[in-house]
Amino acid sequence: MKDGFLPMTAAQQRALNAIPGSAEAEIWETVASWRADGRRFILASVVASRGFTPRKAGAHMLIAEDGATAGTVGGGAIEHVVREEARKLLLGGETHLLQKHLTTELGMCCGGEMSVFLEVVEPAPRLFVFGGGYIGQALAGMACACGFRVTVIDARAEWAHSERFPGARLCVEEPESFLRREPPGASDFAVVVTHDHGLDQRIVERLLPLPLRFHGMVGSVPKQRKFALRLKARGFDAEQIARLRSPLGLRIGAATPQEIAISIMAELVQVRRAAAPARLTQ
User: Fold this and answer.
1) Whole domain around residue 87: which residue ranges?
2) Are 140 and 193 in contact (CB under 8 A)?
3) Of 121, 146, 169, which marks where a domain is finished?
4) Domain total in the chain
5) Sheet of strand 189-192, all strands in order from the earlier edge strand to the far edge
6) Mean pLDDT of the 126-145 span
7) Which residues, other chains included, contact 40 with Cβ-Cβ below 8 Å and sequence gap of 6+?
8) Considering 116, 118, 160, 275, which has the largest number of Cβ atoms within 10 A of its Cβ?
9) Mean pLDDT value across residues 27-33
10) Are 245 and 215 in contact (CB under 8 A)?
């Protein structure tokens, strides 16, 4: 499973919360905590059991990349095998069904059989929106709804406030200062939609050297060409300049800030899901 992990239903959550100290309730609390922290981990679920087994269907265990765990699928040899399969899966893969006879295959005394389904839970991608104007506001709301962890950066406190950006993290400071303190990483998305072309230029110059998953800047074809010339004059090579996606968004005839945000969001989803067709904006 990729980053579309589905939490329990409300009924399941109420049932677990009704049991003080429920181990299963703690599992789902840990899932929420690890996802909020951007951690990548394995969710191992006992999906079937027969005979005498240490855990029955419905038991869960979490195994993080750094080795941290929560919950258990029974301990002993079965848990050792699950940990080993989790380690392999984190190196490459999405799901794996592990089926073991506890006695004949693992030497355990239980005598039963267990099936454990392992799936990778990817962290929700981070989107950095530079600019808290109308496009940034609409884009942040859509991105939050689509499962991105959104940070909005704008030095204008009258624009960057929680009423305009529910669900997003706000950083009311100069973008250059933010980038010096907290540069985005290789799996992150960054979109430049500020109110000032000079500010756009300074942000882009700081973003392009970073190996982000997505660099984007809103603007017209003439703006993109001028930026490319300026970037070249400042020593950026053709490969770096080509990483800047501008004009930004899929070509849908967008005119209003909300429509432009829709076109940008479509491109972000396309890159996130590695989906065809190829980018349409010219």
Assistant:
1) 10-121
2) no
3) 121
4) 2
5) 169-171, 149-153, 126-130, 189-192, 214-217, 244-245
6) 97
7) 64, 65, 90, 120, 121, 122, 123
8) 116
9) 91
10) yes
Token reading at 49 = 């059991």
Q: How far apart are CA 166 and CA 162, in angstroms?
A: 6
Same domain, yes or no, for 256 and 161?
yes
CATH of residue 267: 3.40.50.720
- Average pLDDT score over residue span 184-212: 95
Say how far apart CA 32 and CA 150 lie, in whole Å: 17
Q: Beta 244-245 vs 41-50: how paired, if at all?
A: unpaired
The packing angle between helices 197-207 and 221-233, to 10°, is 50
CA triple 114-41-267, angle to 5 deg: 125
Same domain (yes/no): 102, 196: no
DSSP for 219-269 reads --HHHHHHHHHHHHHTT--HHHHHTEE-S-S--S---SHHHHHHHHHHHHH
Residue 16 has pLDDT above 70, yes or no: no
- Considering the domain boundaries, does residue 264 fall inside one? yes
Side chain identity, residue 53: T
Burial class (CB in 10 A: 0-12, 13-18, 19+), 205: middle
Q: Around Cβ 243, how many Cβ atoms within 10 Å?
A: 16
